[in-house]
Specification:
manganese, 14 strands, 7 helices, alpha+beta
């Protein structure tokens, strides 16, 4: 038994997943973040397209029912946690999805994933919370693109919140819910979205939790994403004991064989191995069994090296736009914003 573990939740407005290359990039991004649960908004996928959300290592997928390609929210749950579904609620318009379940057969949890429309978002969220208040308890977590800055600190313009937002905040407080990011970072000016129309940054993507579980929320951060106009939020939650899973068997990644450098390295490894071990004292079976172990180790080392190189390259590429965005939040300039957009477009081309 693992004595101390935690759950990781990540949520992001992906701004459409109809393009296969974008779905692949999002899947790779999810795997790099290594969350226990992933929540997506604005998938733009229809009900029959839910299978397109499949990510290796993620066994459970829930998606709102949509017959057109608008809105859409989804929940992906990692195979690494034992999640048992108890109840599901969703709206017909594809704007929210609620899953009740248990984790590791012990902890009950209710996750609500919301994508609010651009117009009238505070009233829309307030109405949803009122309608489902009977399902909200201390084990509830609400994630999503609420399209609403909850405080003046959540806008770079420091604009005051309107009446509809104040009513929404009152509803949130009555349900004993808290904005986890603002609770942990009361004076931090960090945003999840930039409005080209208004030239302002804002934090309209949120994670809400029950105040009774404040001590369980280890950390929360905002994470950049190149493929969306929103940033992601990642929440780490303290969790009870869980069984350690057996390691999964190694499998060869066939894509490595398409790399000419990899093929040359493997040929050298085979040649060196045979020159050293192929003699009359070694049976063919022993030679083959040992060769498989040697080549497996070589493939693992090569794949680890390539992943490290790839990650280093992408980190270097994304560092500059992140720095520009930070400068843009302090001293907004049209030229700086254009440069950021251009760099992201260049990175997209390189990734594709």
């Amino acid at each position: 038994m693992a004595e101390n573990t935690h759950l990781s939740i990540i949520t992001l407005n992906v701004n459409g997943l109809n393009a296969p290359i974008k779905r692949h990039r999002v899947a790779e991004w999810i795997k790099r973040q290594k969350p226990s649960m992933c929540y997506l908004q604005e998938t733009h996928l229809r009900t029959k397209d839910t299978y397109r959300l499949k990510v290796k290592g993620w066994g459970k997928i829930f998606h709102t029912n949509r017959h057109d390609r608008k809105a859409g929210v989804a929940m992906l749950i990692s195979d690494k946690i034992d999640f048992k579904t108890k109840d599901i609620k969703k709206d017909k318009e594809g704007h929210y999805l609620m899953i009740k379940g248990s984790i590791q057969g012990e902890d009950d949890v209710t996750i609500i994933n919301i994508y609010a429309p651009n117009i009238g978002a505070p009233r829309y969220i307030q109405q949803i919370l009122t309608d489902i208040k009977g399902d909200i308890d201390e084990n509830t977590i609400i994630v999503g693109d609420l399209n609403t800055p909850l405080t003046s600190m959540d806008r770079s313009s420091r604009q005051k919140t309107n009446k509809a937002t104040e009513i929404l905040k009152e509803t949130i407080e009555k349900l004993d819910l808290i904005d986890i990011f603002r609770t942990q970072h009361p004076k931090k000016a960090e945003y999840t979205f930039f409005s080209n129309a208004h030239g302002t940054f804002s934090r309209i993507d949120h994670i809400l939790g029950h105040k009774a579980n404040l001590n369980k929320f280890r950390s929360i951060e905002i994470i950049s994403s190149i493929f969306s106009d929103h940033k992601a939020r990642k929440l780490e939650i303290n969790h009870g004991k869980s069984k350690e899973k057996k390691p999964t068997p190694w499998r060869l990644n066939n894509m490595l064989l398409k790399n000419q450098w990899v093929n040359e390295e493997i040929k050298k490894e085979i040649k060196n191995y045979l020159e050293t071990n192929d003699n009359e004292d070694t049976t063919s079976q022993n030679l083959w069994d040992a060769a498989k172990a040697v080549l497996r180790g070589k493939f693992i080392a090569i794949q680890a090296f390539l992943k490290k190189e790839e990650r280093s390259q992408m980190d270097n590429l994304t560092l500059h736009p992140n720095e520009l965005e930070k400068e843009g939040q302090k001293r907004p300039k049209v030229s700086r914003r254009k440069e950021t957009i251009q760099i992201k477009e260049d990175i997209n081309k390189i990734e594709i």
